[in-house]
């Protein structure tokens, strides 16, 4: 793989890329063996002891219409890479990856919006590889090792990006529709009762579909609601 920078330790691969976004080309991947200030969605801490695969990728998309779907492309790419290790990975909308109902990967998307970086996106990914006895943060967690798989982190990283770049241009040109069949195939909550939390609000319903925009269609008591953002609780 081209443009991969490896570090033994960083505060956060996200922070590193946001600080160096000017000097680095589109597609640069930064990988750290451990992070001292790893961060997750909603301001949560991402515990980043050695043993996990922690990386971020700098994206300078030529077209910005479908930026929110980039996290879904990454989640799907992680699923496929895990499937190559014979794990049956599923998606928890919008972008967590689970195996056996436990979180194995989290994805964070941060956009840089200013004159110099309009539309620049940094996607950060944490995959639990050889940690054991992981602390529950927002949901139970597992690792490849706990699932009986010993994986080489470089091979796993290469697998993720093989799938990611394969679909990247098509996604930017045509949107989530390109990913939808494969995404839905791995969408664990389909047809099930779920709650979706966004800030202090929680909505209950049946996960009816994922739309051609990548939004969640939730059948509540009153209507079919289109959900753009939130945390699914099964
Ligand atoms: C989540 O599920 O809340 C998203 C977690 C994202 C963690 C990764 S690890 C690599 C990158 N650097 C960070 O500080 N966070 C992301």
Keyphrases for this structure?
SH3 type barrels, binds biotin, BirA Bifunctional Protein, domain 2, 5-stranded antiparallel sheet, alpha+beta, 4 helices, 12 strands, 234 residues
Concise summary:
This protein is α+β, with helices and mostly antiparallel strands and about 230 residues long.
Helix % is: 10-25%
Q: Determine the CATH superfamily of the largest domain.
A: Bira Bifunctional Protein, Domain 2
Proportion of beta-strand residues: 25-35%
Q: What's the pLDDT, averaged over the residues? A: 93
Spatial strand order of the main sheet: 1-2-3-7-6-5-4
Uncertain runs with pLDDT below 50, 5 residues or more?
none
Write the layout of secondary structure elements.
Layout: E1 4-10, H1 13-20, E2 29-35, E3 52-59, H2 70-83, E4 89-92, E5 96-99, E6 102-112, E7 120-128, H3 153-174, H4 180-185, E8 193-198, E9 201-210, E10 216-219, E11 224-227, E12 231-233
Parallel strand pairs: 1-2
Antiparallel strand pairs: 2-3, 3-7, 4-5, 5-6, 6-7, 8-9, 8-12, 9-10, 10-11
The protein binds biotin (BTN).
Biotin (BTN) is lined by residues 12-14, 35, 38-41, 44, 46, 54-56, 106-108, 124-126.
If you had to describe this structure to a student in words, what would you say it looks like?
The protein is an alpha+beta fold and 234 residues long. It folds into two domains: 4-185, BirA Bifunctional Protein, domain 2 (2-Layer Sandwich); 193-233, Roll (SH3 type barrels). Helix content is 21%, strand content 33%. It is built from four helices and twelve strands, in the order βαββαββββααβββββ. It has a seven-stranded mixed sheet, with helices on both faces. It has a five-stranded antiparallel sheet with strand order 11-10-9-8-12, with no helix packed on it. Helix 2 (70-83) crosses helix 3. The longest helix has 22 residues, at 153-174. The chain is globular and about 50 Å long. It binds biotin (BTN). Biotin (BTN) is lined by residues 12-14, 35, 38-41, 44, 46, 54-56, 106-108, 124-126. Biotin binds next to helix 1, strand 3, strand 6 and strand 7.
